[in-house]
Every structure is written in structure tokens, then in C-alpha cells.
Amino acid sequence: MEISPDLEAHLAALIGSSAADATLVETGQNNRVLDFGDRIVRIPRHAGAETMLRREASLLGRLAPLLPLAVPHVRVLDSEIGPIAVHDRLPGEPFYSLHSFADGEPVVEELAGFLCSLHGLDTAIVADGQREESWREIADRLPSDILPRLSPSIRPAVAAAFQRFAEQADALPLRVIHGDFGTGNLLAAHGRVTGVIDFAGCGLGDPAYDIASLVAGLGDGLLPRLHPYYPDLAAMAERIGFYRATFPLLDMLFGLDHDDPAGLADGIAGAERRFASLALGPA
């Protein structure tokens, strides 16, 4: 469906935006995202995406009062094109490096504080019990889709890493996690973190997964800087390294599933690097 000027005007009036038109900022598999400047609108592409948006809206309503940083207040509204999700645009812009800040230490402390608060919540707040266990999905596809595309020299390291992780999986801590705590979902302005967005993957999982996502975006040098602000981080080091190594495998699978040769090649290259570093010890 085309996003016409008339449709933009209709949506602007429905959500109470002061803008007359919007910028299409994402055309992903699940949602189209329109930025009206003061408000963000997500239009689900299918029934499953609508269910995810309604779940996120409900979950954020429970999480928001308990977290130290701003998160979206999502409303699901009926429109002439069906349900849409809308929230006020949070202040700030995404950042992709701590070098963006004259003093990155307050940012590190705020990110760690947010994760401490989130990971410390009662797991009952995730009413449906949804879990982040993408590593299991990857493991199921190792023999057919992943290992044959990796160099023979790295395949044993990949298989061994998954075997070791599977052996301890039942003993992993289960906490409320964001599920995609990467740089594109973190906002900052004037040298401080202003908000966290995109809680579609929020659920129950290993808190090391969120740390891995954060370090993957901001670099390995972030990890030692987090230690003073996040207790017992040292005990997570091996798991953080494993989760980091799975991210390029997800890129591989996305490239395969969506006929994206460049994405597949990038995933393969990233996986070769990460699992080589795991085999040799900490990167």
C-alpha cells in the first residue's frame, strides 16, 4: 500500500501531530515506520506484526514507571487503513560511538543503570513469559545453513561453542531483558542518554544478551568501563562473548532467508572473525 499525501494528512490528524506530512524511515518486514517529527507511527504489515505492537504497548505501560530513562508510551489506534501504533518522538538522536561525547562516562553509567533496573524487575511483569533464545534457533540451523558456508577451519570452533553453551543453558539466569539493546535503539542529547526505544524483543532471557548487544554496537572497550556500574559483570564474560559471536550468524540467516547476498557475505566474515577470537580467547 502506498503512503499517499492524503493518507499522511489523515494519520497526522488522527494522532494529533502538528506536521502535515511524514518521512518514511523504515520499510521492514513487519512494519512501515513514519516519522511526523513530533510523533512516530508504525503500520503493521501483517496480523503477527499487529499482535507484536499490541504486546509492546501493553508491556511498556507496565515497564515505564519502573525505569530510569524515558521509553515510548505506545498507543494502538484504529485508522482507515487498520490498526496503527503511535508514540511521541522521544528527545535525542541515536548514537553509534562513545567518541560522540566529550565525556562518555555519564553515558556509560546511565546505560548500565538502565540495564540494572530492567534486569532487576520481577519477571512476572512479562505476562506472556516470552523468552529471548535466538541461540536455539541458530543451533537448529547450524548443520544445514551455517556450518557448510563457513571455512572448514572454523567449523569445529562454532560447533564446540554451541555445544558448551547448550550444556549450561538450563542454569542461565532468567531476567527481564530488552532483547535488542543496540545503538540504533539508544537516544542521547547534550551528552546524556535521553531514552531507549524498540521493545518488540523485550522478554525473559539472560542479561548477558543485552550487554553483548550493547558492546557489539559501542565496541569491546566499553566492557571494562561498565564494570563499576554493573555488578558481577565478570561472571558474564564468557556468555557475552558467545552471544556476540551469534550476531553475525543471525546476519547470515537473514541474508539467506531474504535473498541478500551482501548481508550473507558480511555475516560469514563477521562469524569467522568472532569465532576465531573465541577459539583463541577473549578478543
In short:
This protein is an alpha+beta fold and 283 residues long. The protein contains nine helices and ten strands. Strand 1 (23-27) and strand 2 form a beta hairpin.
Outline the fold blueprint.
Elements: H1 5-15, E1 23-27, E2 31-35, E3 39-44, H2 47-63, E4 75-79, E5 82-88, E6 93-94, H3 105-119, H4 134-146, H5 155-168, E7 175-177, E8 186-189, E9 192-196, E10 203-205, H6 207-218, H7 222-226, H8 237-257, H9 261-280
Antiparallel strand pairs: 1-2, 2-3, 3-5, 4-5, 6-8, 7-10, 8-9
Helix pairs in contact: 4-8, 6-8, 8-9
What is the rounded Rg? 20 Å
Q: What order do the helices and strands follow?
A: HEEEHEEEHHHEEEEHHHH
Mean pLDDT: 94
Strand content: 15-25%
Q: What is the assigned CATH homologous superfamily of the largest domain? A: Aminoglycoside phosphotransferase (APH), C-terminal lobe
Q: How many beta strands in the DSSP annotation? A: 10
By CATH reckoning, the class of the largest domain would read: Alpha Beta
Domains, number: 2
Class computed from helices, strands and strand pairing: alpha+beta
Helix content: 40-55%
Can you summarize the main beta sheet? 5 strands, antiparallel
Find the CATH topology of the largest domain. Aminoglycoside 3'-phosphotransferase, Chain: A, domain 2
Lateral strand order in the biggest sheet: 1-2-3-5-4
Helical stretch tally = 9
Low-confidence stretches: none
Alpha carbon gap, first and last residue: 46 Å
CATH architecture tag of the largest domain: Alpha-Beta Complex
Choose one word for the global shape: globular
